[in-house]
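SEVERITY: medium
COMPONENT: batch folding queue
REPORTER: lab tech (J.R.)

DESCRIPTION
The queue accepted two submissions in a row. Attaching both inputs and their returned structure tokens so the on-call engineer can compare them side by side.

ATTACHMENT 1
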Amino acid sequence: MKRLFLVAGYDPQGIIGPSFIYCISALSAYGDIIAVMDCDCTEEELRKLSPYVLHAGAGRHGEYDFGSYKRAYLYACSSGLLGKYDFCYLVNDSVFGPLHDPGPYLERMEKSGKDAFAIAMNPHRRHPHLQSWFIGLAPSVFTSGEFREFISGVRHLEDKNSVCMVYENGLTALLRRCGFSYGALYRIKGKRIYNDIRNLYRDGLPFFKKSAFTRHNGALGAQVNYILQRISPELGSAIISDTSRIYGTEYVRRFLEGGPAEMFCRYISYLADKIFHTR
């Protein structure tokens, strides 16, 4: 299968870190990559990706991941690349991974016979949607006028929640409205994708959310540590390197330390602070 990965990235310091390079390298074994960063990166930083990508671009556009997907997609269109591929993937760096070889996951999705597919889907009662950090599209979708109009129309919105409603939920709504079939390997309810990363790892989910490092006052430290002890040393070191650079070495060290009692205390502290500030 010929695959094109449109990868959206962001780094608060404009650095192409080792965990992002790890992900790009792993995906490059299974297809071609166009990467777009929603931050200002130097040419020297972008050159770190050159062994793995067809094209890499950077610049703060403020349109979040869908803005990067848009720019990568339009580059593929203008370069005459899009028609060469059997599948087009939208992938963003809100997750760490892949924790396992991505090949079998790609094959399972592609053999589903769906027009669109994702690693994970939120089966929300009112707004069920494919989670936009890893979505695959068949030509019936990515060459359609409806999808091109949708992705070309991405604009700046004021906050992430608006982006999720208009573009993440909106993409699934578009699929449904146009009669495209869709599905996912995992159905993950509510906030479980953020809060239950250890069990999701045990279930085989090949990524975990980066926000695990900052959620609930550090109460997910034990879960993150569980995963780090079981994945490849190269990826584990890359994750520690990037999070230490962004959050500080001391924060990451303390975050990963502590047993169940410590994690419980952190969560109670988070709840107390949340209750106090909502009164």
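ATTACHMENT 2
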Amino acid sequence: MSATKMRVGGGDDLKTQARDAWLYALPLIEIGQLRQRGAGFGMKLNTFFHNKNLADHRARAVTTPNNDTLYASGQIDLSAGPVTITLPGGGERYISLQLMDAYSNSFAVPGTRTTGPDAVTIRLVGPNDAAEGEGVIRSPTNHVWALARVLVDGPHDLDGARTVLGGVSMQGPAAEHRTGLADRRAPWREYFDTAHELMRLNPPPVTDQALLRRCGFFLAKGYEGVDLTPEDEAEIEAGLAEARTMIRGGGITGGARPIDGWSYPPANLGDFGQGYGFRAAVALGGLAALPPTEAMYMRAVGESRGVFDGTRAWRLHFPADRLIPVNSFWSLSLYEATPEGQYFFADNPLNRYAIGDRSPGLKMNDDDSLDLWIGHESPGPDREGNWLPAPAGPFALFMRAYLPKPELLNGQYRLPPVEAVREPGS
């Protein structure tokens, strides 16, 4: 029987089912790849790996890394039992522990905003374990990605931040990595075989049942034992191609309509609900983005397809009374873009990948306004402290605002536009 004659649930055609199923599964696939790569580097489950250096142009494990915090990353498997996590006190230093389920939803973020400046001990339990006592957090899935961030307040502060990072620890039962997982470039059968296995280990919530029934041909491996015609295969490939096109460039702002040249994140960033397309776009272009209450991510829309031309000079001007309202810090990061729509830091002569309110040498104007200069060529010795170097080609700009104040969260405050610098006489 031809698969195109088959109808699952609401009766969508094979192309639509393939597209929606591929988008639904992408976060599982991307996080599964992180776990698998970690196993290749000898990283054990239910332990933390401490990255004691700030990310630079060589950091290619996760798209849109930041250059503001040190990380401790831990891949967790709760199927063998709970784990205990210690998050040290940050005092006045920003610290957070983002806990993400297998579908990339942030289900808890202990740290400065939620648990305060003192140390906290967490008992993390799986979806079917007893959850009693103080300090217990239940995960919706057995697989969890725990990502701690510790602020580095400038080069002089690196040793102090490393000391705090060293206090991020985990104790739990031993667990074995699963290998042989397909990545997003795999043939569709391998991709969905892996998705099905990860869903078996991490059952989806009941609120996803409508999509799961509609796309069961792929997500429940309904294709096993079915003879597919060349036309069927072509429909499936067309659905996957459409899915890849849909998520390219959307990222953490979800393709939102820009305001004054900036796109702002939807409220469901990091806790996506049934926003499967947006969730997939973030898995590709901003995996592990924090929820807006923890950090606001804004992207400058650029000249074309979200990117700027590095061979031109650009300026971001903040009036004295319009600096970014945050309770922690802000920084502007610059990335070169890959053809697939991922973003990584670009090598540059200053080894400067972001600039913000903690940057050494940052100069305010005489009227207390602030200019940031962006481009491949230096803006001159007097402005180099405020220069964010760009490659001689396309680049993207992302603004991070940690612990945003209400006026930023509710839209009363908006960033000024990034403007091209006009040369005298032009």
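NOTES FROM REPORTER
Confidence is low (pLDDT under 50) at residues 1-10.
No errors were logged for either attachment.
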